[in-house]
Amino acid sequence: MAKDMTLLWGSGSAPCWRIQIMLEEKQLKGCNQKLLSFEKMEHKSQEVLDMNPRGQLPAFKFGNHILNESYAACFFLENQYKSQGNKLIPDSPDAQALMYQRMFEAFTLVEKMMNAMYYNFKVPEGERHDSAIHRNKEAMTAELKLWEGYLKKTNCCLAGQEFTLADVLVYPFIAYMFHYGLSSERYPALAKYYNSLKDRPSIKATWPPYWQKYADQDALKTI
């Protein structure tokens, strides 16, 4: 079945990485994966636009189905292959509720991370304000403290003791933050979560080659 799948992806992109982890978790070998370069603007190529008119990666096709949103693609694959590979939606209503809460709550985490990291890139130089930079950092710090508390309670994965769809979807952004200098000392529960899943086969096998090539960055070291 995986031979009917095509994934166009970019290294270092958390949404692309989610689908790659999902393919590994569901033991879907043989997917036609093609690495494209953001630097060379290959995500704006006709090949991508034919699948994703937004000119963004990932671009994912399964048979006649096109799912370019990583959440949609991961849900679709879990539902199509419930009995194959690792089961990623728990039966327990408690664990399931927590899983859904964390995976969608992560949109807020990502938004605050992007505001803190990329304010200087998004706002023209003459319109930037130190007060806004400070507010963005404070908002991200408060958000990270929430997630610290969540992971101290579960002491394992996002929805409890089992690896779930929430981890597939959120872990890549947690890893992204540590790659960009998030402090293990200030956020020990997040760091424990990040390090404990590094060697999970699906994550290890798909670790972004861009990150392996370049040293960790420091954009978040002051958060």
Automatic annotation (TrEMBL):
Top-rank lineage group of the source organism: Eukaryota
All copies of domain GST N-terminal, residue ranges: 3-85
Residue ranges annotated for the GST C-terminal domain, each copy included: 92-222
Membrane-crossing segments per the record: none
A Pfam family per the record: GST_C
SUPFAM superfamilies given in the database record: GST C-terminal domain-like (SSF47616), Thioredoxin-like (SSF52833)
PANTHER family: GLUTATHIONE S-TRANSFERASE GSTA (PTHR44051:SF8), GLUTATHIONE S-TRANSFERASE-RELATED (PTHR44051)
Family: Belongs to the GST superfamily.
Protein name: Glutathione S-transferase rho
